[in-house]
Structures are given as structure tokens and as C-alpha cells.
Amino acid sequence: MPPLFNRRPEPGLSAALPLVPMPLAELLVRVRQTVETRFAESYWVVAEIADLTLPRHDGAHCYLVLTDQHVTGRGAQLKAQARATIWSQRYQQLAPAFLEQTGQELRPGLKVMLRVQVKFHEQYGLSLDVLMLDPSYTVGDLARQRLETVRKLEAKGLLERQKKLALALGPQRLAVISSPTAAGFQDFVQQLGESPYDFAVTLFAATMQGTDSPSSILGALDAIRRRRSAFDAVVIIRGGGAKTDLLAFDDYGLAAGVGSFPLPVLTGIGHERDEAVLDLAAHLALKTPTAVAAFLAERLARLDAVFSGYADRIREVAARQVEDADDLLTQAGRYVHRAAQTQLNGHRADLFQRIREAATVPRQQLQQQQRQLSRQRHGLHRAARRALGQQQQQLRTLGRTLAQRFRRLHRRRREQLLRRRYELQLAAERLLHRTQLRLAQLSTPPFPDATALARHGYVQLITDHHQPETALQPGDEVRLLLPSLTLAAQIVDRTPHLAPSLVPPVSSAPTP
């Protein structure tokens, strides 16, 4: 083989000829020749199938992605990866024999032993040609680890604990664990923005792939746990990826943390075929982030429809009561009218009878009877109108009462909802404020005494009632002790401040 011309000259020797660059194609041809010479034989290797593309028609080939992984305390880590090919004719021989002896087809996650031959192509790089398959290696390391993790979670009852939690009827305060730059998070926010409902989304940034992903997600869950009263649910989302990118979601610690979390956890990891252990431990597992957003919007739509149905039902009941009262009033009016008409007809018949019987009675008595009859008729009409007016007044009073009761009930419900919302906001702010104060107290080193503070230019705060500094509020009167005088002051505002960590020690020797 001719020497490489772009090699550096050895020390002490001058380069007689200028360096001649080598074309990339020539370099890769030499690499291929070296590989063919050095790796002319075939080799038995053990690897796991991370990805698999089966032949879609007769004459097509089978393409694999083989990985070599090892298990650490945080899960499986990728050590090596290579492309492999089972050519069509050989696949038609190996696949049926593998299925017959193992009872399952080739699939991602299987750890197999296969005989390969190393190939190198100038354009397509390094690949392996699969010559034989050993059916004794059929269960992949990833599948065994996943099965052990699921069994441990099931033994501790962490697979069903999340599913026993009640998801809020209208979950709108969402704590989202995702990468801020992930396309899945952007799709999730866009899907929620397109819905007619207002969602409060708080992002807790975390690493969503790699070995640091489980600890990062658990850290986000711990941050949410301290503010769990401010959220209705937790959403863990990421975009799609290869199977090797989803190994972090089979971590036992992460699945146990989700299974024991006090709030319902929804997952949308972004894989269509595989199901991670995290999905099994969550309250609800959906395929993609947009599916999670669609589920939340649909849940609020169903709740909105239920409230609309209640409002329609209330209107129907009120309208039915008004109609019933109207029918009752109409029937009462008809009854009064019939009674008055019957009474009038009776009086008229009695009058005619008396006229016939007392034909000889003087005209004055007849006129008196006519006046009495007229007064009774007018009285009956007035009584009928009065009864009709009373019924109408009662109907109007009943309608106003129903309307006032409905408005009062609606206003009371709205005030309760607003009061609950303000209480939750106030509780969240108080909790955040207490946490900030606690952090400030924990991180603030102790101050030296007043003499040392005065010597180094500090000011000592003196209160009248010997109150601690943490109990002082805006408006309290205090005194400031300076090296040479004392000033009276009033507190206007409180701002947490971290004192300097180092103060020169005070010497015990007397000053000259």
C-alpha cells in the first residue's frame, strides 16, 4: 500500500517535497480496502435491536439499528451503535426460522446473537451484513429491565396510586415539565391557545433525554410539590424520538416519583408505538403533547356543556312554572266567570219568576229590585276583576321571586368561585413569600455584635419593644445606632437582603 502523502515529517528531517492533499474518495477507498483485508471473516456479536424496518414487499430488505448498552444506577446507557442489513433472500430464511424457534418476530428491544460481516462503503459508511441469527438470545436487556421495574412498582402499589386520584372537573392550572425549546411544548401551548378556554401554564424546565433526564424531572416534581396547592394537574411532555432517546422514562426512580405524587400526572411523551414505564405509573397516558392539550380542552368543553345544560334546565323549569301559573290563573278566571254567569242567570230566573208571581206589585218595588240586581251584577264584575288582579299580582310576585332567587344564587356562586380563586392566589403568594423568607434566613450568616458593626461602618437597628427584626412591619418606629450618634427612623418597606459573608473579627486588646 503506498504511503499517505499528507503525513507529518519525522523530527529532525526536513520535508523535501511539499505536502500533497488526498481526495476524500481515495482515503475512503483505502479505508474500505483495509476493512476488507482486516475483517475478511464473519463474527458472532451480541447486540440489542434498537430500531427495525421490516420489508414491505417481496424482494425488499430488512434494516436494523444495533446497540450495545450497559446498566448503571440511573438506567441503561448507550455504548455503541451500528447499522445492519439482512438482505431479502437471507431474511426469507432467517425470519421464519427465528419465529418458529422463539415464538416471536424480530422487534425493537430484543437482544440477539447474530453472525455479521463488516462492510464499508465510501458513500454510506460502516454497516454490518447479517449472515445468521442465534435464537437463544431473544429477550433484550431493555425488556428485562423494564419488566423488573414494572414488577417492583406493582409490588409497592405505585402503578395504581395515581389512577385513584381524582382529576379536577376543569383542570386549568397546569404545571408543565418539559424542555423550553422542545417542539412538543410549543405544540402543547399552541393547542391550548387555540381552545376557547383560559389555561394557566407554568413551565418547570427539565432535561427530557439522556442520563440526567430522570434526576432533572424529579427535581421539577419536587419544585411542584412545594406549590401543589397552586396547580390542578402536572403534565410531562416531550417531542418524539428514537427508542434509545426514551430510555430515561423507564427509570424506576422517576416512575416511583410520579406514582407517589399527590397531584394527577398526565404524560404525552410523543411516541406512537412504545409505552414507557412512566406512562404505566401516571394518572393518564396520552401519545403526544397535542393529544394532552386536546384532552384538557375537551374536558373543559364537556364541563361547559354540563353547565349550559343546567342553565337550560333552570330556564325550562322557570318557564314551565310560569306557564303552569298562567294556566291556573286562566282556569280560575274561567271558573269565576262561569260562577258569576250562573249566579246571574239564577237571579234573572228568580226575578222573572217573581215578576210573574207578583204581577200586581207596584212599580216602585220592581225598580227597587232592579237596582238591587244591578248592584249585585256590578259587585260580581268587581269581584271577578279583583280576583283576576290578585291572581295576576301573585303571578308577577312569583316571577320576580324566582328571578331574584336565580340572580342571588348565580351571584352567590360567582362570589364563591371568586373568593376561592383569591384564596388560592393569596395562599400561593403567602407560601412563596414564606419560602423566600426561609431561604433568606437560611442563607444569611450571623451578624457580629454592635461594636464590630460600628467599627466597620455598619448600622445597628434598635427597636423600642425589643421586637425581632423579622417581626418589624412598614410603619414601625426604630432607631439607628451609628458610631457617633443615634438616628430615629420609620420603616417604609421590607426587602430581603443577604448580608456580607465575611466581617473582620473584633480584637480583644485595648486600643491605645
From TrEMBL:
Domain OB-fold nucleic acid binding residue range list: 24-131
Keywords: Cytoplasm, Exonuclease, Hydrolase, Nuclease
Coarse class of the protein's main subcellular location: cytoplasm
Location in or out of the cell: Cytoplasm
Keyword Magnesium found: no
Annotated Pfam families: Exonuc_VII_L, tRNA_anti_2
GO molecular function: exodeoxyribonuclease VII activity
Reaction(s) catalysed (UniProt annotation): Exonucleolytic cleavage in either 5'- to 3'- or 3'- to 5'-direction to yield nucleoside 5'-phosphates
EC number: 3.1.11.6
Domain Exonuclease VII large subunit C-terminal: from-to ranges: 158-443
Keyword Chaperone included in the entry's annotation: no
InterPro entries from the UniProt entry: Exonuc_VII_L, Exonuc_VII_lsu_C, OB-fold_nuc-bd_dom
Source species, domain of life: Bacteria
Family: Belongs to the XseA family.
Protein name, per record: Exodeoxyribonuclease 7 large subunit
Name of the gene encoding the protein in the UniProt record: xseA
